Amino acid sequence: MIFLRSLLHALWMLVTVVPWGIMMLMASLFLRANPMYWLAVGWLSLAIRGARVLLGIQVRVTGMDNLPQGETSQAILLVKHQSTLETFLIPTLMPHPLAFVFKKELLYVPFFGWAMARLDMIHIDRSQRSEAFNKVVAQGKRLLSRGVWIIMFPEGTRIPRGEQGVYKTGGTRLAIETGAPVVPIAVSSAKVWPRKAFLKRPGVVDVVIGRPIPSEGREPAELMREVEDWIEGRMREIDPEAYPPKTGA
Fold this sequence. Notes:
Pfam families: Acyltransferase (PF01553). The chain is α/β, with parallel strands linked by helices. Helix content is 44%, strand content 14%. It has a single domain, classed as Glycerol-3-phosphate (1)-acyltransferase (3-Layer(aba) Sandwich), CATH 3.40.1130. The chain has seven helices and seven strands. The longest helix is centred in the N-terminal third of the chain and has 26 residues. It is globular, with a radius of gyration of 18 Å.
């Protein structure tokens, strides 16, 4: 049954992404960035709705009231990364458009990547590290000034359930450079949608949104340690089965 449900959801995403990608390409000829973004979120909502109906995945969100308020508010979302699910899910939850920071190779993925190329995102060449970060800062300032929030995964890649990756300081460096606060977010997606796995299982995914942390006067490594401690602490609360109990010194 799990295999069948997973197959149906994969087919659902495939048969919807192709026409949606074509529609995005056509719409980009006459739509501006903001409506183009929400058009893309429409397909993400279809994928999440399909996960709920076909896979039995439910989403429970706490802390929405912690998000910065106002159309011109700024934020850099730093999110726990366990699977593809949060990549689809977080934009459907946020009241502001989001700009992902991602490697440019994703732009070459048929239909999905082509549609992303039509959005105002930040794609970087990881082989050019210093130039890449300067590009992130320049584009980040421009997007934040328009009320677009930046979303980053500080661990850099999807991390298996119950494990902790290396939290890189790119997100906090960007926050300090732009003056935007960081918003830590914990997501227990691997309980139902493991990384690089075809089979998905029914269950509840918890999304916990923390309070904004000011970046002014902070050091990147010190600020990231605070983000890391908060996220990993919440992960142990929302998915205790995946983490061994901490032992005393």
